[in-house]
Amino acid sequence: MGAAFGARFAGASANVVGSGPNGLAAAVVLARAGVAVTVFEAADEIGGGTRTSATALPGLLVDHCSATHPLAVGSPLLTALDLGRYGLRWRLPSVDCVHPLDGGNAGVLHRSVAETAAGLGADGDRWRLLFERPSAQFDLLSGDIMGPLLRVPHRPLALARFGAPTLLPAAVLARLFRTERARALFAGVAAHAFRPLHLPLTSAIGLGILTGGHRHGWAVAEGGSRAITDALAALLADLGGRVVTGTRIDTAAQLPQSEVTLFDLAPESVAAILGDRLPRRIRRAYTAFRRGPGAFKVDFAVERGVPWTDPDARRAGTVHLGGTFRELAAAERDVHAGRMPQRPFVLVGQQYLADPTRSAGDVHPLWTYAHVPNGYAGDATEAIVAQIERFAPGFRDRIVGRAVRSTAEVARDNPNFAGGDILTGSKDLRQTIFGPRVTLSPYRVGVPGLFLCSAATPPGPGAHGMCGVGAADAALEYLTRI
């Protein structure tokens, strides 16, 4: 991650376009190697998907997008950087995640594999079989798990044991479980892939999140997710790098001369900036980049919290609302096909339970979004309220404020999220493995000195910064050869 190069590249310079967690991670890796780095951000504040504000619900801190971080808290980069020196404090809820079912039953996810298994009855042994060993080895495997897939791993045998189940469709792996609560609990996490659960590789994101979460917990950043990128930016400043906000890059001619440039942008945006500088086949791949479904986001101000029927849900940092495995799988198929389901999959974040600084007295921020078709032009607010009310009767009566962001507004807030696609591209088989084009080096743009470091590259979405690490390492390798 750059540090091994020491100050070898003193005198070299780099531009980074975009100040999300991957752009800032790339900038830090380069700066630690002695490169003079300038980060350009179009918005007036840094952070991309990790921004946090109190403007939507006055007095309450609300994350714009990325909110809970089971992979970031154990990220090889963030762990190595010791960002606590710059104010980053991880906070854990007493229960990681709950998936309630009609009739009062629920799948409950604890950080402890044993405690989770104990609550899954007949499926306890199977849960332990799937997660006990991988979670114990997570820190040893994280560099391989959260790196580019097409490379020689550091621990091939252990990675093979972990990776074999990730190739399966989530619907196939869910058959391992006999109880509805275990199937639903697994499916709700697998649904973070925004893909129909019968497709190959849809187990991968769910297994990664669950394994990392069992090792480190579903942490939130105290003061909001912005604390992650604020800490990275503070470290970058100490390393001599600088960040320029309010500066949108539309053409390559706007960028200062530098040996390398990295883009924390969606591939379509990179193609627009570079124009004819891109080889024709790469420009075609970038402009044909496939998008996934969208997120329709509603933040609520809730007095006295949500009156969940399930008592564990009242202590959970995350609640997944999708009903049974079959119901959730049908909703994801509909969304992928461009149809809005009557009961969409809804993610609910109660970050204030781990981080009370986000609340104002007895009024608490509730972070929610529903999976909807890409570019969905309707209003999913009522569908979200109805799903919460289904498992928390009386919720409507506790709402004292709300802030709605449609798929179009999500995209305006962050252009990487076209159509509300907060994963920066469909995580189908090809794009998950290769990124936006078929290549053994997903971070190389195809023009000497230019690199892609956004969540469109492996290992994909999250505030872990590892896409930035992969691109920065590729840039440093390039610098050794010029």
UniProtKB/TrEMBL annotation:
Coiled coil: none annotated. GO terms for molecular function: oxidoreductase activity. It comes from the Bacteria. PANTHER family: DEHYDROGENASE-RELATED (PTHR10668:SF105), PHYTOENE DEHYDROGENASE (PTHR10668). Probable oxidoreductase that may play a role as regulator of mitochondrial function. Interacts with COX5B; this interaction may contribute to localize PYROXD2 to the inner face of the inner mitochondrial membrane. This is Pyridine nucleotide-disulfide oxidoreductase domain-containing protein 2. It comes from Speluncibacter jeojiensis.
